[in-house]
Write a structure and sequence with these properties.
Aldehyde Dehydrogenase, Chain A, domain 2, alpha/beta, seven-stranded mixed sheet, binds nicotinamide-adenine-dinucleotide, 39% helix, 23 strands, 477 residues, 15 helices, 2 domains
């Protein structure tokens, strides 16, 4: 059994009072961490000290800030095994996936430091000789970052690194289900940043809502659509800029391809990593009618070969579902899909693997349906569940892919250049992948449209604009 995480950090800016919340390894159901939630008074104090952190940090040059952040990233890299273990114990994903998440987070963060060093103002010609017009960018102040439980290292770093590089202070509120890794990230920054530049507040929705309503200068949120709407409404009322990265219902169109096995391998990777608990997980497969049977059989064979088990078992390729509520939701949505006429081709129920009989597992599930209104096609299930539908024409494939409220990511597998080109323009999602799964690159905007997001996304260079204000400065003579 894994070690119990320390309940309280020594960091003065990290608030974690009496033990209000236990985290449990979703594979063994054993307690792995105990945390206190911040009180309203502690929230007020941490916001006040973060303002002091901002005053101290924002006067550093961008290069000095990036140098220090680079040292922080090196410390994080050195602690990969500790962080990966903490993630696997609380979130459940296989250790190999936890390590890969940290590696990806570090690559993105280093790329971001490069963007940050080059980010800045521009000087344009003034209206008279000797005059100049300068576009200046300044840090916003205190940024609130709220993160979900599925990527405990990657998602915090996608917010902390650009925000800090631009000179802001950050208050991080990690998911109450996976705070251990985030707390360790903050601990590793100690001594590198002025006091209270990077603060962490533990708590659930109530604490987070208190932070959202407080005086902050920007809010970066990743999580569900329902929570995003609430935060957007409060931020709108307070006129605070907000970046919302929300859910997905991502489609993969499978057209005629020479290498169907490669396409199916990519789909399985994109659908079942993190047991499907990824906003960018492929959750709908739309197959050309003439290859439908081959796609169905290939998917089923691959899904049945996944090995469910605890994340610390090297044989495991499918980890558990992180919370009991999420497992109930998956079960409920699969039942609803069946009641509405869909057919479960494989899976469809909870699993009790020998290596973790008490764990929160759901079998890899393939649901056949031609009804675009079926709940399995419309609702974000956030688990190891794929739908399979067929198309007869290019028009129909694109229409089906776009027929949800979401617009995060989509993939198309095709050898036909005309269809590929058309899809690149027609697919209604922030990220579009031709002939590979839905893994984003380290230097590209990670962004959704429609119900999948609002405002600037993360990862690419445009992220830095979100963490700065813009000023038009005119100098005469
Ligand atoms: P969630 O919305 O329940 O919680 C996310 C965070 O918001 C947590 O820290 C939670 O404590 C906090 N929160 C809860 N109520 C709040 C409130 N009223 N005000 C402010 N904050 C509040 O999401 P989750 O279940 O942790 O994560 C799963 C969801 O996240 C899925 O919908 C998934 O698609 C989405 N997600 C999106 C992306 C993306 O980049 N688009 C990435 C990962 C996850």
């Amino acid at each position: 059994m894994s070690a119990v995480q320390p309940p309280v950090l020594p960091a003065p800016a990290t608030w974690s009072g009496a033990a209000d919340f236990e985290t449990r390894d979703p594979a063994s159901r054993q307690v792995v961490g105990r945390y206190g939630f911040a009180t309203p008074e502690q929230v007020r104090q941490v916001l006040a000290t973060a303002r002091q952190g901002f005053a101290a940090w924002s006067v550093f040059t961008v290069n000095a800030r990036c140098d220090r952040l680079g040292t922080w990233l090196a410390r994080i890299e050195d602690e990969t095994e500790v962080l990966a273990g903490a993630m696997t114990d609380e979130q459940g994903k296989p250790l190999a996936e936890s390590r890969a998440e940290i590696g990806k987070a570090l690559r993105e963060a280093r790329q971001m430091l490069g963007f940050a060093r080059a980010h800045g103002g521009r000087t344009l010609p003034g209206r008279a000789p000797g005059w100049s017009n300068t576009i200046q960018r300044r840090p916003r102040g205190v940024v609130l970052a709220i993160t979900p439980w599925n990527f405990p290292v990657l998602t915090p770093l996608r917010k902390l690194v650009p925000a800090l590089a631009m000179g802001n202070a950050v208050v991080l509120k990690p998911s109450e289900y996976t705070p251990a890794a985030a707390m360790h990230l903050v601990r590793l920054a100690q001594g590198l940043l002025p006091d209270s530049t990077l603060c962490l507040v533990n708590g659930a929705g109530e604490v987070a809502a208190g932070l959202v309503a407080a005086e902050v200068d920007a809010i970066s949120f990743t999580g569900s659509v329902a929570t995003g709407r609430k935060i957007g409404a409060v931020a709108g009322g307070n006129l605070v800029p907000v970046s919302l990265e929300l859910g997905g219902k991502n489609a993969a169109i499978v057209d005629r391809v020479v290498d169907l096995d490669a396409a199916l391998d990519a789909i399985i990777g994109a659908a079942f990593q993190c047991a499907g608990q990824r906003c960018t997980a492929i959750s709908r497969v739309i197959a050309r009618s003439e290859i439908y049977d081959a796609v169905r059989d290939g998917l089923i064979a691959r899904m049945q070969a996944l090995i469910a088990g605890p994340g610390r078992d090297p044989a495991t390729t499918l980890g558990p579902i992180t919370t009991p509520a999420q497992l109930d939701r998956i079960t409920h949505l699969v039942r609803s899909a069946e009641l509405e006429g869909a057919t479960v081709l494989t899976g469809g129920q909870r699993l009790s693997p020998e290596s973790a009989p008490e764990g929160l597992f759901f079998a890899p599930t393939l649901i056949a349906t031609e009804d675009s209104a079926n709940p399995a096609v419309q609702e974000e299930i956030f688990g190891p569940v794929l739908t399979l539908s067929r198309f007869e024409s290019d028009d129909a494939a694109l229409e089906m892919a776009n027929a949800t409220d979401f617009g995060l990511t989509s993939a198309i597998f095709t050898d036909r250049l005309d269809f590929a080109r058309r899809a690149m323009d027609a697919l209604q999602s922030g990220m579009i992948h031709l002939n590979h799964g839905t893994a984003p690159d380290d230097n590209m905007p990670f962004v959704g449209i429609k119900a999948s997001g609002l405002g600037t996304g993360s990862v690419g260079p445009s992220t830095l604009d979100f963490y700065t204000t813009e000023h038009a400065v005119y100098q005469a003579g």
